[in-house]
């Protein structure tokens, strides 16, 4: 078997990202929880394979499947713009196990105010790590900005949860089970823009089709953040809407009445089952490498791009996750 050719484009995902199916296959690989079990040595080995290949050096005996596996292991642990290793719980592969635990507990312990406050705080703490870890671009964010985003999102989520909880006191119990989802949706609208506020101030990198950086755009940042907010809310819908209906039915049965301790693990399991599919499918709603027409960019950037290359009609950017 000959040496692996150097014309495999590992800058892009393995599957066609212009189709939903291609993006779904890509994100099923990216969000695979098994990537969390990889050791530091395995991550470094994958990074070396990818970086060497990009530099024109093929690891002896490397197959195409092994190259793609290394690329996805590398992508699962390192930020695409900064190259930094992402903290364990901030990686997309941690989304399912972390969210199934947190969401399951939010849906289980929604009746008492202290537990509502605690689990909303835990959820927003986790979201803050994820939003920062998967931000777009390489522009740093200050500790003050991080603190503002974290406090604002947590306060918003807790206030929404407690406010809705008080409104549902005289409504059917099933309605109260949907309070955590409303709080999470509201918090996503606060947390993500605030955690990525630096992008809204200075913009994110935009490139031509070949990946050549052309400048920074706030307009692209707004579009990317909006897409991420929509994806995150859609991601929460199956996990926070289906289990409450099932649990409301099951808790009326004698089986759970005699074994109330089974309620929490059962709910966590139902949430996990929903998230295994909802996480990659909702990440796939919009292309990771999104595009925007030059005519929609800021006038200064538009003029700069026209000056560099008048034939460019569309530019690209990493929307973040």
What would your notes on this structure say?
By secondary structure, this protein is mainly α. It has 13 helices and four strands. It has a two-stranded antiparallel ribbon. Strands 3-4 form a two-stranded antiparallel sheet. Helix 4 packs antiparallel against helix 5, helix 4 crosses helix 12 and helix 6 (143-167) packs antiparallel against helix 8. The longest helix has 33 residues, at 218-250. The chain is globular, with a radius of gyration of 22 Å. The model has no long low-confidence stretch (mean pLDDT 82). One of its GO terms (molecular function) is monoatomic ion transmembrane transporter activity. Pfam families: SFXNs (PF03820). It is found in: Mitochondrion membrane.
Q: How many structural domains can be distinguished in the coordinates? A: 2
Q: List the helices and strands in order.
A: HHHHHHHHHEEHHHEHE
> What does the overall shape look like?
globular
Give unreliable regions as ranges.
none
* Oligomeric form: single chain
Q: How many distinct beta strands?
A: 4
Content-based structural category: mainly alpha
Within the largest sheet, what's the order of strands? 1-2
Q: In percent terms, what proportion of residues is strand?
A: 5-15%
Helix fraction, binned, reads 55-70%
Catalytic activity: L-serine(in) = L-serine(out)
Protein name: Sidoreflexin
Family: Belongs to the sideroflexin family.
Transmembrane segments: 266-286
